[in-house]
Records
---
Amino acid sequence: MRPLVFAANWKMHVGPPEAREYLRAFFAAGEIPHERAVWFFPPAVSLEAVAQNVAGHRNVVAGAQDIYWEAKGAFTGAISAPLAAQAGARMTLIGHSERRHVFGETDEQTGEKLAAALAANLQPVLCVGETLAQREAGETTAVVTRQLVAAFAGHSGKRHVTIAYEPVWAIGTGRNATPKDAAEVHRAIRGWLKGNAPAVVPFVILYGGSVNLKNAAELLAEHELDGVLVGGASLDPRGWAQLVRTAVA
Ligand code: PGA
C-alpha cells in the first residue's frame, strides 16, 4: 500500500473543549492504519488542545491554519510560526484559498510565510489552485505555477514542503475535481518542483476541494494524489475516522 496523508482543515470550527471531545470520538475507532498519516489543522485557539490529545498517537500531528511572517512584535491578532510551534504545531497551511480570496493574501506574502514556517521548523503545506474563471480561461497551469514561483522565491535548500492542490471552485461547493483533472494538475506541479525546487523532499501533493466519504476512494485511486486536504467532511469525528480508513485500489 502506498503511504497517504489525510489532512483535516477545521477552518473556523471546533473550540478547545469540542476538540478534546472530537479526538476522543476519533481515536475510539482505533489507531489509524500504518501507512497513513493524519494531520489536524484546528483554529489557533484549539491548537494546544489538539496537539496534547494527539501526542502519542503514531502518525497524527497538529498544525496551524495560518501564520504571520514576523517572528514576534506588535501585530495584534496575528500568530507567528514560533508561537504556533510553542502551542504544539508541527506544520502549517500556507496560502489557503480563503486566506488569498477572503483576506486578500498575496503570492508574495505566501513566500514570506513559507520562509517563516521553515525558519521555525514548521512543515509548510502550501495551498495552490485556480478560480473557476481561470480554469475556464485555460489558465490553471499558469496560475498554479505563478503561485509556486512566488512561494518558493529564494528557497533552494533541502526542505520538507507539502503542496495541496485545491481548485477554488471545488472548495466547499460539493463539486470536486475529477480524479483525472486533479491528476493533470498534480503532474504539472510535480514537474515544476523537479525542475525548480529539486531539494524539496518528498514530493507530497494533496488534493483538496469537496472530498468526502463518497468520492475519496475514487480520487485516491489516482496515484498522482498522495492524500487529501478536507474541510467540511473532516468535522464529524466518526465520518473522518471512516474517511482515513478509505480502502484504496
Ligand atoms: P472542503 O474544504 O473539503 O470543505 O471543500 C477543503 C479546504 O478548504 O481545505
---
Amino acid sequence: MSAPLYDTPVRQRLALPQTELFQCAADIVEVLRREGYDAFLVGGSIRDSVMGKTAKDCDITTNARPEHVQALFPRTVPVGIEFGTVMVLQNDLPFEVTTFRADGRYEDGRRPESVSFSEHVTDDLERRDLTINGLIYAPESEEVLDYTGGLADIERRVIRTIGSPLARFGEDRLRMLRAVRFAARLNFQLDSDTFEAIRSVAPNIQEVSIERIQQEFQKMVQGAHPARGLQLLHETRLLPEILPELPGHEAAIHRLLHYEALEVTNETLALALLLVDAGASQAEHMVRRLRFPNETITQVGTLLKQYLTLKQYMELPMAARKRFLRQPLMSDILTLSTILQYHDRVPCEAVRAVQADLSQWDQAALSPTRLLDGNQLKQWGYRPGPQFKEILDAAEDEQLEGRLCTSDEVQHWLASHYPKENDT
Ligand code: ATP
Ligand code: MG
C-alpha cells in the first residue's frame, strides 16, 4: 500500500523539549513567519521527537527563497543554494533552512534533472523519502502536521515510502538503503510493498555512488541494531550488492546480536564483528572499498589481527603479555574476543587470563618507566647504531619479566649480554 498525501493534515499536539536546539529553531521560524512566510520544523528531528528520542539537529522548511533567507538572518552560509538550502547560524548552532522544493524528473536514478521552488509545503513533502520523514511541526501552535501518514506509521512501527515505492526507488535508488537503515535503526518493519519493491530492484543500488552508500551503511552500523540491518539487507537482496565479499551472513548476525545486547555504540567493533569471517586483510579491503576513514580501516584490521594473538595469550611470556595488554585498542580487542568466545572462535580460558592480568597489572606495571634508554646507553659508552633498539627492547623485556629492577642490575646485564665493542 503506498502512502497518500492527505489534503488536510492529521494534527497532533506535541510540546518539544525545551532545548536550545528547538528554541533556536522556533526563533528562526518566528522570524520567517513575521515576514509573512510559511515555515516549519521538518524531518528527522520531528520524527525523533514524536518517538521520544533526542534530536541531534533540526531542519527548517519554508516558502521563503534562499536569497530572502540570507537577507533575513545576520549569519548564513550558502551550503546548497542551488537546491534551496541556506545554513542559518543561531546562537552558534547551525540550522539548514530549505525552500519548499518540488524535484523535477529523475533521469539517472540518483538526482533530479532540475529542482523548482514551490509555495506549497505539500510539494516539498512529496519529494521526501519515507512517511516518517515527512512530518512537519508548527512551533507557534505546538502541533505536528502529518500529510504523509507518518504518525500512524510511527505508531505501527512501519517504514513506508511516500508514494509508490517502485517509482520512488526509480527516482533515487539510495532510498532503498535508507529504508533499510531506518527500519534497522528504529527497529521498525518494512511495509510489505516497500519491502517487495526493494527485493525486485535491489541490484539497481549499484548505480548509486559508493560515498552515498557508505553514509547510509555507516549510520546503520553506528545505530543500535546492526544485526537487524544485516538481516534486512539479506532479506531485501541488497546485501550481495553492497557487500559482495561477505562470506556469509548468519554467523555475523548472531555476533552482532550479541553486540547489540551490550548497548554500546562502537563502529569499529561492529565492523570487526561483521567481517570476522573474511579475515583481517580482506576486511580491511572491504572497509576501504566502502570509503570508511583510514583510521577506521586500520582499527578494524588491528582488531581482527590482535584477537588472533589473544587466542594464544596463555602461551605468551610475561613481557609479551604486558606489551599486548598495553596497546591502545585493548579494550575493544577484549570486547571482541569476549563475544567471539561464545561463537567458538576464542578459548574462554584466554579471555579469562587477559581479564585477570588486566585487573592485577595497572598502567605502571604494564608500562614502567624504562630503566634503560638511549641516553643512558650513550653515557655508558655505547655507540648509537642499529643495535640500540634491539638492546633497549631486550632490556625492557627483562624489566617487564621482573628480572631487572635497578640501574645496577641493568649495567651487569648489559655487560654480560651486550658487551661494548671495544670490550670484546
Ligand atoms: P538522521 O537522524 O539519520 O540524520 P534524517 O531524517 O535527518 O535522519 P537525513 O539523511 O539527514 O535524515 O535527511 C534529512 C531529510 O531529508 C529526511 O528526513 C528526508 O525527509 C529527506 N531526505 C534525505 N535523503 C533523501 C532522499 N534520498 N530522498 C528523499 N528525501 C530525502
Ligand atoms: Mg539528518
---
Amino acid sequence: MNFNVAVIPGDGIGPEIVSEAKKVLDTVGKKFGHEFTYTNVLMGGVSIDAHGVPLTDEALETAKNSDAVLLGAVGGRVGVDKWYELPPNLRPEAGLLAIRKGLGLFANLRPAYLYKELKSACPLKEEVADAGFDMIIVRELTGGLYFGERKTEVVDGVRTAIDTLKYDENEIRRIAVKAFEIAMKRNKKVISVDKANVLDSSRLWSQVVSEVAKDFPEVTVENMLVDNCAMQLVKNPAQFDVVLTENMFGDILSDEASMITGSIGMLSSASLGAGKLGLYEPSHGAAPDIAGQNKANPIATVLSAAMMLRYSFDLDKEADAVEAAVRKVLEDGIRTVDIMSEGKTLVTCTGMGDAICERI
Ligand code: NAD
C-alpha cells in the first residue's frame, strides 16, 4: 500500500530523530511491501526564519491532505534564540497549537511502557518495577477546564477567578469510542478516570462511557476516581491497559505515567481526530542542548512512527515489528547516551536508527 506522510522535522534535534524514524519506516516498507511518500513541512523556528510565522496556511494544508503527520519537535532556547523576542502567538510552540487545532485532533495518546532492560531508571520500588507495566493514557484534548469560559474579577472587593469545566455528551462519546477502539488493539481493558463523587461533568462522563461500552462487549470497563488513579499509578501500574480521561486529569496523569518509565527519550505520543489522520511525535522537546551532535535518542520518534502504522494505517503487524526491533536493540545492550549504563554499547542517533532497522 502507499501512504503519504507529511514530515515536520522542526527545530533542535527534530531533523536528526525524524530522519531515523523515516529510515525505519522505509525498512518496514521494503519488508512488508508498502511505500511511504514524504512531504516536508516547515513548522516552528525554521518556519519563522523562512516565513515569519511558526506555521503557514500552506503547511497546514499539506498536513491536512496527508494520511498522517510525523513531527520531530519545535522550539529553542528562551533568551538565546531570537524567536523568543516575538509575541507568544508567533513563537515556535504556537505552531503546535495551530496544527493540533487545524487538524481537529481531540484525542491524545501517551503510552507508558517499562522496558525490563531500563528498569533501573524506574523510580518505583523494585518489586513494582519487576512486575513491569504497559499502558496507554487516552486524554481528551480540546474540551474541559482548559477551554471553558474563564474570568478574573473583583467581587465585593475580593479578587475572584473562575474557570469552567464543561463537557457535552458528544465530546465524551467521541473520545470514549477512540479509547475502546484502542483497547480492541491491546488487552481489551479500559479504566475510565473521573471525579464522579464531586463533579457533574464527571458523572456525565461515566454515564456516556458506560453507553459506549455496550458497543464493545469484549472490552472490560472500570471507573476509577482520579485521586485513586494517581496513587495506583505508583502502587500497581501493571493493572492499567487503556486509561481514558478528560483533559486536565489526563495532562497530570500522563506526566506521572511518563515519569515512572524514567526515560524521556523513549516516550512516544499520538494525537488523533475524527478520521484516520493523526499527528505522531515524541513526548520530549527539541533538546537544543544536544542538537546537531548526533547523540539524541531517536527511539521515542521511532515508536511514534510505529503508532502511526497502527492507528492511522491499521498496519498492526508492521507496528509490532518496529516495537519488537526496539526491544531487541535494548536486549542487545545498544544504548544512546541518555540511557547508557556500564557494560553497554554506546551508539549515536544514526547508529541507533541503523540498529533498529537491522532488527526489523
Ligand atoms: P526537552 O525535552 O527538549 O529536553 C529536556 C532534557 O532532556 C534535555 O537535557 C535534553 O537534552 C534531554 N532530551 C530530550 N529529548 C532527548 C532525546 N531524544 N535524546 C536524548 N536526550 C533528550 O525539554 P526542554 O529543554 O524543556 O525544551 C527544549 C525546547 O523544546 C523548548 O523550546 C521547548 O519549548 C520545546 N518543546 C517542544 C515540544 C514539542 O515540540 N512537542 C515539547 C516540549 C518542549
